Amino acid sequence: MTPDPALRERLADVDARITDAARAAGRDPAALTRIVVTKFHPARLVADLAALGVTDVGENRQQELTGKRAELPNLEGVRWHFIGQVQTKKARAVRAASDCVHSVDRERLADALHGAPPVRTGVDDVGAQATPLDVFLQVNLTDDPARGGVPPAGAEALAAHVAAHCSSLRVRGVMAVAPLAQAPAAAFERLRLAADAVRRVVPDAVWMSAGMSGDFVEAIAAGATHLRIGTAITGPRPGRR
Known about the structure:
This protein is an alpha/beta fold. Strand 2, helix 3 and strand 3 form a beta-alpha-beta unit. The longest helix is centred in the N-terminal third of the chain and has 20 residues.
């Protein structure tokens, strides 16, 4: 099935805006990873995106991620990012279905992901090696402790724990959602400072997952490497028009 022309146009428009924002910030657009968030959309949309050259998609809910991967067993060249909050009891399922998890925000969750059976590489089990799971440490940029994420002051300690005790996880950087009531630029500056702290422990944790449909320009200016963009590309979510 040919992808919807409107989907193609929205994708091209966002990519052009990403390129413009990167160049305005003096950055190489090719160094940015655009993740298309397909929350609530059917699995066929992921297939359409892949046909348009999309290599990274994101999901917020474990059941939806697991289900879509099961519906698309032969889809190649797509990296699946889990970007929602993770319940410790679902760590096994999240690890099984994810290539990258953006929301590690506490030691207990890191330990649970580390303890889950890792995905194996190789044709068979003989000589196969576990593939490390790429993770971001989620930082809470609000004053509400009920929101997901470690406080900025705790990011370095969380990174130290993962590095010391969770060898099957690979800390890639930090992630955050800009608070609605604050200017995105100021919020992302706080995230950048947390990223600096994490790199004191894990020097190669240079990724930053920040920026969504409404604020990815500010995120790029602040140094984001991974952009989580949903409706600007996918259009309205089913049942939420």
